[in-house]
Amino acid sequence: MIVYRVLRAFGRLALRWFYRDVEVVGLESLPNTGPVLLASNHPNALVDALVIGCTLQRPVTLTAKATLLENPFTRALVRVVGIVPLRRASDERVKLESDAKNGIAPDPSRNERAFSSVLDVLQHGGVVLLFPEGKSHSEPTLAPLKTGLARIALMARDTRGIAPLPIVPVGLTFERKWEPRSRVVMYVGAPIIAGDETPNDAGGVSRLTEHIESGLRQVTLNFDSDDEAHRVLSMASVLAHILDDFRPLHEPDPPFASNVRVAQRLDAIAAHLPQADPHVASRVDRFAARLTAFGTELRAHGSWANDVQMSTAVAPGLWFVLRELVIAVVTGPLALWGHVNHWIPLRLATSVASRTSRTPDEPAMRTIVAGFILVLAFYAIQTTVVTSIAGWAVGLFYAASLPLSASWDLRYADRRRRAIARVRTYLQLRRDPALRERLAGEVAWLRTEALSLNELLERDLDAVAEKHPHVVSSSEVPRYAPAGVDSGASRGGR
Questions:
Q1: Chain mean position to CA 122
Q2: 490 versus 42: which is more confidently predicted?
Q3: Quick one: DSSP state of residue 65?
Q4: Alpha-carbon distances, residue 52 vs 131, 211, 337 (angstroms)
Q5: Cβ neighbourhood burial of 366 (10 Å; 0-12, 13-18, 19+)
Q6: The pLDDT value given to residue 94
Q7: What is the DSSP letter of 20?
C-alpha cells in the first residue's frame, strides 16, 4: 500500500505537469465503500489507467494486457503496483499459433488465474478497473466491447456471493491526448447492477455487456468519423466560450467538461434533426453556419470567443498590465528557476516520445515515462553536486525547490500565453471599434439563438418522442442548460 501511494503521488505530479487540468464529473456516483468494477473506455494507452488511478481517492487495482509482461520495465511495474494481467483473445491467437508449431495443446482457461485474482480483490471490498474494449485506440467511437467484464461480474455474484456489485462506467475524453498542457475530463456514470434475474450464460453475458456499452456511451463522445468529431468539437469549443461569462486569467477557459457537454448536445441534435420541425431545422443550419464562420474568423485574429467579451476601456487595461507585472516580478523568479532546472530533461523526454511514437495514443505515456526517469536522474545529479558543495541542509532545500518550481513554471507559462493572446485581442479591438462591435454583436446573437434553439428542440424532440417512441426517446437526448449565462453586456475585469 505504501508503494502504491508513493507511485500515485508521482503519477499525480506527472499528470499535473503534462496536462493542464484533469476534471472529474459525477464522482458522487462512485460508492465510497464496498466492491466496485470500473468499466472505462480506452483512448490513451496506459495514461487512461494513470488518470483513473491517480484521480480517485480509493485504491484501484488495475488490469492490463498480458503482453506488458514481455517488457522488463512494464513487467516490474506490473509486479510492484499489483496489476492483474489479462490475456486477450488476439494475444491468445498468436500464442496458439506458436504453441501449435511446438506441438503444445491449447490452454482453455487462459484467464482463470487472472479472473480469480480480480474476484479476490472484489471479495475484500476493493475497486477493480477494466477496459472492456480490450485495446487502446484512436477511433472516434467506442470499439465493440469484449465480454470479460460481464463474465467477471456474473462470476462474482454466483461463485463468491458478491452482490450487489456496482459496475461503474467511466468515460475519459482528452482535448488533444498527445499534446502537453491540454486537458482531460473524466465522467463517472450511474452504476449498473447485474440483478439476480440475469442468467450466467451466453445470453445473460451478452445482455449485461450491452448495458455496460450503453452506460459507457452516456459518458463518452462517439462519432461516425474523425472529420465529424473534429467539426463538432471545434463548434462545441467556440460555443462553450460564447455561453460562458468572461473569465479571469488564472482560469480563462470554460471547464473542458462544458465543451464535452455541448458536443454531446450538438451531436444529439444532428442525429435527431430529420425528425425536427423543418423551420427549426433551417434555423439550426443557419446557426451552425454562422458559428463555424465565427470560429474561423476568431482563429484568423488569434483570439478566443471569451476574450471578445472583455472591456476595452483604458482603466481595466492599465489594471491588467499592472497586475501581471506584479505577478511576474514576485513569482517570475520561481518560474525561471523551474524552467532552468527542468528544460533539459523535459526536452529530452519530449524528443524521445516524438521519435519513438507511432500512434496518437503513445506520445503522452512515452513522454511521462521518459520524463519521470530523466527528471529523477537529473534531480539526483543536481542534488548530489549541490550537497557536495554546500552541505546537506542546502542540498535538501535545493531538492525540495525543484518539483515546486517546475509546477509553477508550467502553470505560469499557461497564464503568460493567454495573457499575451488577451493583450493582442485588447489592442485589436481598441484599434478597430467596428471589429469589436461586429464580434460582440455576433457573440450576442449566437448566444441568444443557441438558448432559443435549445428550448425549441427540447419541446420538438419531446413531441416527436410522444408520437414515435420507437424512433426517439427524449430521455436519451443529452440536455444542455448553461449555468450562469449572462445575456447582458460584456464584463470589464480580466
A1: 26
A2: 42
A3: E
A4: 12, 21, 31
A5: buried
A6: 54
A7: S
Integer Cα distance of 42 and 134 in angstroms:
8
Distance between CA atoms of 329 and 346, rounded to whole angstroms?
25
- pLDDT above 60 for 474: no
Contact 425, 310 (CB under 8 A): yes
User: How far is C-alpha 113 from the geometric centre of its chain's CA atoms?
Assistant: 32
**Tell me, what DSSP letter sits at residue 21?**
E
Residue 250 pLDDT: 87
Cis-peptide, bond into residue 164, ω within 30° of zero: yes
CA atoms within a 13 Å half-sphere pointing along the CA-CB vector of 437? 3
Q: Tell me the C-alpha distance between 491 and 247, whole Å.
A: 9
The helix (H) or strand (E) run that includes residue 319 is helix 314-356
Q: What is the DSSP letter of 306?
A: T
- Collapse the DSSP code of 84 into the 3-class scheme (helix H, G, I; strand E, B; otherwise coil) and give the result: strand
Question: How far, in Å, CA of 368 to CA of 405, rounded?
Answer: 18
pTM of the full predicted structure?
A: 0.86
297 membership: H or E segment, kind and range: helix 278-301
Helix, strand, or coil here: 86? strand
Domains delineated in the chain: 2-101+110-218 (3.40.1130.10), 223-472+488-494 (no CATH)
Is residue 256 within 8 A of residue 175, CB to CB? The reply is yes
In angstroms, the Cα distances linking 237 to 34, 251, 253, 402 are: 38, 15, 10, 35
Beta strand 127-130 with 183-188: parallel, antiparallel or unpaired? unpaired
- Degrees (nearest 5) of the Cα angle 65, 69, 72? 140
Instruction: Check: CB of residue 148 under 8 Å from CB of residue 19.
Output: no
Grid coordinates in use for 158? 454466483
Question: Contact 182/364 with Cβ under 8 angstroms?
Answer: no
CA distance 286 to 265: 17
Residue 211 has pLDDT above 80, yes or no: yes
**What are the backbone angles phi and psi of residue 437, rounded to the nearest 5°?**
-65, -40
Four-CA torsion 264, 169, 17, 365, nearest 10 degrees: -100
Helix axes 226-243, 433-467, angle to 10 degrees: 110
Please tell me the predicted confidence (pLDDT) of residue 77.
65
Q: By C-alpha distance, which of 32, 29, 78 is closest to 58?
A: 32
Judge whether 303 and 424 are in contact, CB under 8 Å.
Answer: yes
What is d(CA 372, CA 345) in angstroms, rounded to the nearest whole number? Answer: 9
Q: What is the DSSP-derived secondary structure letter of residue 25?
A: E
Q: Which long-range contacts (CB under 8 A, 24 or more apart) does 116-119 make?
A: 117/84, 118/61, 118/63, 118/84, 118/152, 119/152, 119/155, 119/156, 119/159, 119/160, 119/162
